[in-house]
Amino acid sequence: MHKTPSGSSLGPGGLDLTQTFFKPINHAAPPSPTKRHTKISVIGTGNVGMAIAQTILTQDFVEELALVDAKADKLRGEMLDLQHAAAFLPRTKILASVDYAVTAGSDLCIVTAGARQIAGESRLNLLQRNLSLFKAIIPPLVKYSPDCILLIVANPVDILTYVAWKLSGLPSNRVIGSGTNLDSSRFRFLLADHLDVNAQDVQAYIVGEHGDSSVALWSSISVGGVPILSFLEKQQIAYEKETLERIHKEVVDSAYEVISLKGYTSWAIGYSAANLARSILRDQRKIHPVSVLAKGFYGIDGGDVFLSLPAQLGRGGVLGVTNIHLNEEESHRLRNSAKTILEVQSQLGI
């Protein structure tokens, strides 16, 4: 497939005008070899992949963006469409190809490729349709970028993150699933809406499976530093557990609602993935609820399983998992969530 990178070639034969147009100053040294050149590759240019790519381009933290997809014409069209917006965006070199060689030297590879989720379909039911794709995607990514971090977005994300870890041979800290980062954002939005505050002032996590068995950590929710449930108890303000469960159910059902209305989700996951990419590549060491190798945490055992826990992210990938307090019910639900994933995962044979 023909590639059209951002470059300085004009005229017959692709004449390079850089040396003619710009005259170097005297006594100049070449660029420092330590200068960091950041590259992200996005695998899959469907609605989710392009939302991620577009959001990354607007946030000015990457010098090169590579797109990969099996549909050559659509891929080239998406690349050109983004390149034509160059005057309105931070300078980024944009490449695209059906050949995974275009991803060479990536710091972060974001995998969105997969079958589209059908309205009402459980994320776990997507597994068999997406498993074979990963066998064709992950090995070449690691071949061309052996030092990369993998960020898996395709669903069911927890199991596919495990699959990517197994197929890649990478250390577990460099294989991350987008997990419940978006679920937690939805959770914070709903809580903020109920309390009429800014969602950024709400500290709240959804953990476990990105799906039906996810766990809302009500015991650790705070607003402006004030723990909500303990505050209500101290003030002797009654609340109904059914109300809490209803809010959590809204979080779980929200993606299905969007899919039923517009056919797919894209913008929220685009912002979520770009947010994770920034935290990783800028070494921000922020805490995100993402899918990580969870064995040994919070009493989770029985096998290697990836599910979402609040984790610190940086240039090395997963730097650690926070020791957040879980009450007995939350711990029990989290272990059950792990069992749900392991039951399906055990059928993979890898």
UniProtKB/TrEMBL annotation:
Enzymatic class: oxidoreductase
A GO term, aspect molecular function: L-lactate dehydrogenase (NAD+) activity
One GO term describing the cellular component: cytoplasm
Tagged with keyword Oxidoreductase: yes
EC numbers, comma separated: 1.1.1.27
Ranges for domain Lactate/malate dehydrogenase C-terminal: 180-343
HAMAP family in the cross-refs: Lactate_dehydrog
Protein's recorded name: L-lactate dehydrogenase
TM stretches of this protein: none
Reaction(s) catalysed by this chain's protein: (S)-lactate + NAD(+) = pyruvate + NADH + H(+)
Family stated for the protein in its record: Belongs to the LDH/MDH superfamily. LDH family.
Keywords for the protein's UniProt record, in alphabetical order: NAD, Oxidoreductase
This protein's pathway: Fermentation; pyruvate fermentation to lactate; (S)-lactate from pyruvate: step 1/1
Span of domain Lactate/malate dehydrogenase N-terminal: 38-177
UniProt-listed NCBIfam families: L-LDH-NAD (TIGR01771), PRK00066.1 (NF000824)
BP-aspect Gene Ontology terms: lactate metabolic process
Binding site for NAD(+): 44-49, 69, 130, 153-155
Active site (UniProt): 210 (proton acceptor)
InterPro entries: L-lactate/malate_DH, L-lactate_DH, L-lactate_DH_AS, Lactate/malate_DH_C, Lactate/malate_DH_N, Lactate_DH/Glyco_Ohase_4_C, NAD(P)-bd_dom_sf
Species lineage: Eukaryota, Viridiplantae, Streptophyta, Embryophyta, Tracheophyta
